[in-house]
């Protein structure tokens, strides 16, 4: 008996489990030849449709909180050090 994994089944929704698909299937689903890539105009069209190809930026930690965290971490490590050393 052969087990069927997520890699073996076809995905009808291109956004469903794209990360679990073989690269050739992902490329085919999204209509791109990995050896050639996208043309500049197609890349521009997709950026207009789907947004820029970048991660969302996280909120920056205030400097006072970073200092407080580092101070707390240093104190925490100090109290747990080996007194024999």
Could you describe the 3D structure shown?
- With 85 residues, the protein is mainly alpha-helical.
- The chain has a domain at 1-52.
- The protein is built from 3 helices and no strands.
- It has helices at 23-29, 40-50, 63-79.
- The termini are far apart.
Question: In terms of topology, how is this protein built?
Answer:
Elements: H1 23-29, H2 40-50, H3 63-79
List its traits:
mainly alpha, disordered N terminus
SS content category:
mainly alpha
Based on CA atoms alone, the radius of gyration comes out at 24 Å
Sheet-strand content, in percent, reads under 5%
Distance between the termini: 60 Å
Mean of all residue-level pLDDT scores: 77
Task: Identify the quaternary structure here.
Answer: single chain
Task: List low-pLDDT spans.
Answer: 1-7
Report on the biggest sheet: none
Helix content: 40-55%
What overall form do the CA principal axes indicate? elongated
Number of strands: 0
Could you give a short description of this structure?
The protein has three helices and no strands. By secondary structure, it is mostly helical.
